[in-house]
Amino acid sequence: MEARLLEVSPKVVAAPVRQVMVRLSSIGFCLAELADVHTKLFKMVNSGDDDGCPTARHNEARMLICEELPELQESLLHKGQTLAKYLAARLVYHELRSELFERLYFVTAPGGGIATPSSAVGSFTPRTSTTPASFLQDSAGGLLTLKEIVASRQNSFLSLVEQAPTALLGSFVAELGIELTHAWMYVIIDYLRKQQLDQIYDHLDGDQEALSRAIDSMMQVTRQRVQTKALGGLTLEDCRNAEKRLEEVQRLSQCLIEEMRSRTAEELARYAAKVRGEFSQETRDMRDTASTMLGRERSQTPTPMGPSLGEKTPRILTYSDMESLVDAVVWFLKYALNPD
Questions:
Q1: Domain boundaries, the chain
Q2: Region annotation Disordered: residue ranges (predicted)?
């Protein structure tokens, strides 16, 4: 798991964020119009029917409306939620890549050198920046905390929340809050693996509180746009579902912080290595031996045309790959912190 895993095909992030928002708004407009069509069609069918003796033709029309339109609406809603999830992942893993994965909690050693031990390989943080410089200004002699990142970006987040279509607002806010929390926990795990607990410990409570306040602010804007009567809009149930998902991920981050208070730096380093899926030297030796034996067996049998099973082919990573990596770490955290 290295920083190169954050590299994606240029095509994935070619469209500006503003253009993605336009596409999201277009889907939201279609959802709203589809809900209006549903209402208008029912009114038209009912107005032409006999109240005392409904006709079979009008009943068939009602059945057709009930069967066809919800399926189309569900398909459109799924596409919109997928786009909202992409936008949230892009904001965290691409637009905030430098701040979160390269500069967060990073302290430059005296003389301008890198303070990270040379033995800390396969790490996301810290490293030389490979992305354009952020608008955030470095504090003299200090380090960048999540609290400062959230404060600098909060107006941008709220602006996007206000621009998001009502029907997809709950999904977007939930995904953005979840991805921010997941990324933050992953960076914490990386510092624990390098036994740099002292470097981040004093900032965790403040960062947790700042992140929680930012998520609450976005949810407040979301709740203000609840539509109790409009079909295809934002409902109270949508808000409750989003809040439930956000509460769960914040509870997980709080459990991680509490775990850090009860363990030593060495214990946390082993714990972080286990979370990241790293193997002991003995395990690696056994795996290499098994691979060598398997390679010998393969060399004695004819191979089909094309790349062999052991051959690695180049592949461009997508946001789904990055989310899978982070989700795997989060899943392990859930299991480790809540074994029941």
A1: 15-106+143-282+319-337
A2: 280-311
The residue written with tokens 């380093």 in the block is 269
- If we measure between CA atoms, which residue out of 41, 31, 44, 116 comes closest to residue 79? 31
Percentage of the chain surpassing pLDDT 90? 38
Phi, psi torsion values for 114, nearest 5 degrees: -90, 130
Sign of the alpha-carbon torsion through 148, 149, 152, 156: negative
Find, among 138, 174, 322, the residue nearest to 247 by Cα. Answer: 174
Token digits of residue 328? 């795997």
Q: What is the CB neighbour count within 10 angstroms for residue 123?
A: 18
Q: Quickly list DSSP for 190-259.
A: HHHHTT-HHHHHHHHHHHHHHHHHHHHHHHHHHHTT--SS-TTS--HHHHHHHHHHHHHHHHHHHHHHHH
Answer yes or no: is pLDDT of 277 > 90.
no
Report the SS3 class of residue 61: helix
Q: What is the pTM of this model?
A: 0.71
Sorted by sequence, the CB contacts under 8 Å of residue 318 that are 6+ apart come out as 8, 9, 12
Contact between 9 and 318 (Cβ < 8 Å): yes
Pair 236, 228: CB distance under 8 Å:
yes
